[in-house]
Each structure stands twice: as C-alpha cells, then as structure tokens.
Design goal:
mainly alpha; 9 helices
Length: 178
C-alpha cells in the first residue's frame, strides 16, 4: 500500500447547492440584476466616501468592472448618482439614529445606509422589507462582522417615517399576540 493520500482526500469539501456560500452570503448565480446593481453602487459610493472621487470618474470605472453586464444599469445609475447628490440630506435623516459620530461609522455601512434611505425615498416599486433585506445582505457580504445589525437597526428606525403607509399596512396584517 502507498502512503500517498487519494486524490479525493486532497479536495476541499463540496459546497452546498442551496444558493448560499459557507458564510451565509448568496452565491453569485443566485443574485438578481438589481442586487448586482446595489453591489456595484456600493463599490462606487465607497470610492466617493473614502477616496472623495468625483461621481463622473467613479461611474465609468465601475461599469468596466467584471460582472457589471449582469447588473441592472439603470438601477445602478439611480443609486450611485442619487446617493452622491443627496448624501448630505440623507446623512441628516440617518444621524439622529446613530449611537456614535459619523467618523466611527464604517464607510461600507455608511454607503449601505445611503442605499437604503435612497430606495425608501425614491424606489417605491421596491417594497420596504425588500430594501431592508437587500441592505442587510450587502452589509453582511461587504461590511464588518456585526455591521449588518447596525444597518438593520438604523434602517428599521427610518422605515416608519419614510414608508409610513407601507409599514402600517404590514403591521395591520400581522395578528397581535394575546
């Protein structure tokens, strides 16, 4: 017998085919074109927040990234340009819900919150719970260890004021526990 391990012993374990990676993030094949647009917008917003790059420079650079052709380009445009243009106003809405100064907020979480607020305000075709879920998923995939929890708390706090009728309708649907 040989002491050489079999080829099967050298291979990494197979990943499940549930649409999730080992970390719980969605696999690329399971992502919608709007989800991809949010991911590319997040990358562009990060460049804006950290590098202070102009949106007119960020846009073509981001469009040249691998995989952009699978993203919803129109949604990307709306998010990138809208968030940069309305960043100060969105920061003013977000700030009262923060428990620390902006300087201590990760630029990834900052950009994800911008995306959430912008979609709450301007993308009324996207249900508020979908906006919230997509932003939490972005924060899980690109943010810090517990950044998604912070994003969830802030956006959940803003939803009742930015999507009041929709949030109230959801509350009315749920039966109250006795």
């Amino acid at each position: 017998m040989s002491d050489t391990p079999s080829p099967a012993a050298k291979r990494p374990p197979r990943q499940s085919r549930t649409g999730l990676t080992a970390t719980g993030a969605r696999k690329a094949a399971g992502k919608s074109n709007r989800t991809r647009a949010r991911e590319f917008a997040l990358q562009g917003l990060y460049q804006s927040l950290v590098g202070r790059n102009a949106v007119d420079d960020i846009d073509p650079f981001t469009r040249d990234l691998a995989g952009f052709n699978k993203a919803d380009a129109a949604h990307f445009d709306v998010l990138l340009h809208g968030c940069v243009a309305q960043g100060e106003a969105m920061d003013a809405l977000i700030a009262p819900l923060l428990d620390r100064p902006w300087g201590e907020i990760s630029p990834v979480e900052h950009a994800v919150m911008w995306i959430g607020v912008y979609e709450f305000q301007h993308c009324l075709d996207v249900p508020w719970r979908v906006v919230l879920n997509e932003c939490v998923e972005l924060a899980k995939e690109f943010g810090g260890t517990d950044g998604h929890k912070y994003v969830n708390g802030v956006l959940n706090g803003l939803a009742p004021s930015l999507r009041a009728a929709e949030v109230e309708a959801d509350k009315a649907k749920k039966p109250r526990k006795a």
